[in-house]
Amino acid sequence: MASIRKSGGDNLLVRYIILVSWALVCVVPILWFLTIGFRPRTEIIVPEPIYWPTWSLDAWRLLVSDWPIALYLRNSILAVAGSVVIDLVLAIPAAFALARYEFKGREDIGFYILSTRMMAPAIVAVPIFFLFKNIGLLDSVWALMLIYAAINLSLVTWIIRSYMLDIPKELEDAARTDGAGDLTILWEIMIPACLPGIITAAVIAAIFAINEFLFTLLIASTSKAYTMSVALANFTGGSDGVIYNAIALVSFIAFAPILILVILIQKHLSRGLTMGAVKG
Amino acid sequence: MAHSTQTLEKGAAKAAPAAAVYSVRRPRSATAKKMFPYLLVGPAVLYLLAITLYPGLFAMYQSLFVVKFVNWSWAGLGNYTRIIQDREFWAALGNTAIIGGLSLSLQTIIAMTVAFFCYRDPFVRGWRIVFLMPMLFMPSAVAFIWKLAFNDGRVISDLLMSVGLASNNVDWLSSVWLARLTLIVADVWQWTPFLFIIFVGALQGQDEEIEEAARLDGASWSSIFWNISLPMMRPIIVVAVTLRGIDITTMFTNVYIMTQGTPGGATETMSYFIYRQGFRMFNFGYASAASVLMLLITIVIAQTIVKRAFKSGKS
Question: Is A174 a domain residue?
Fold first, then answer.
């Protein structure tokens, strides 16, 4: 039976005041925004805020009738899933090389891959826009897929690399004496053994891709290639003003699956977010 | 390439079963062996080069022109001399540093406090899920939550008035610091979980026995934190804060949705400056020059801090 172990603050009262306060800060805006999705529009932007909602399904009706939510969902899923596949195909061999082989320039190549994560999207935004314009890929899901893959490639490579570093070399040596080649080792030993790392990397890459905003805004110049993230911003402007109840509803539709994915990989999350620089 | 050698080897093994025991794996030539890691890492590097080197070079080239739709006219270093005299550019740089710096400090302090109070709590798994929720919202949705709470729905003003902290409706976009504050609140709310998750993982991973021993020696929890936990976590803190810091310097979505740089450019970040010059005013050459300058700054940061952070994080 686990006893209540002591942690920071031997004073339980202080501890729980702090934890509950922060939990409220995290959750109350989310719950409040959830109610926004079930209110009539007339109730949201008024001089005196109304805290207790009159329930309404206006936003649902708007989404179903006026808003191509199926298209935006399809765009999001296609671009995100495609980008994750590209990332895994490129990153797994790269991570294998960086984790297991001695070769000239290994450190520099590893750092180059890492450093692409440090590039501000705005820096490459203008040229990327022209690049896709020139090859005629503006306003397409394929362009988004390529961009998302590039944004997350460094992250995915580094996460997988860190998991590969943890796999005991003996496993590999044993296979090698049995006559397995390099690729067999990668395919039959490394990939199964670091599957948690691969899944973590894929989930984190997917979350960043779903949420990506700036490039999607620039490349998806008409609503044809809009993803959920950018389509939200489309509820604003025009004669109607910001349509908050629809925004709230859409953000919850996107939030739910992400929450489930993250709960599934919770254990690996901290390591994944630091690209494997932190073990645990 | 390498794969076909594999199949060849297998074929050879089948053809000569008698000798198979010793020659299943034909030793590959020395050069093939040397090239193999490059073949593995090559595609990823080429992909990244295509998507970073090309834009980098293109931005440098374009920054030497004045671009008017399809007409490019040579400007030499004109864009650069203009930009270093452009007060808006320096203001954007300053705003990024001020908003990002304040936000990052707040996030670090809150994340550390909350992590420290919760890592040995019996319900730590539950707390973790609750505390990380804001991070899982789409950034654009988060920006709308706070736009509604601060400006459009006046909820925060109303709450402040009801507890007597404000006497009348606050116009958050009317003052430099209030507008910045709204961006900071949104950023802290969404991204404190990032640091929290990492810190709590690090605290849980530390050796419990050292803590226990210190406690038996009569050390108070605060001295355990300052003298044991914090020093042990240092490398992890450096990595996490560095990564978060880099993300903050690229702050765009909140500015785009919540403030659009108002009032008077006080909330315009570097990313928004480049976006506005390029995609609102169509000064593509000028925007590219700003990008190149920002790229130089990023490279300097990446080379120094990040390399060090990742070295210390690994040891």
Answer: yes
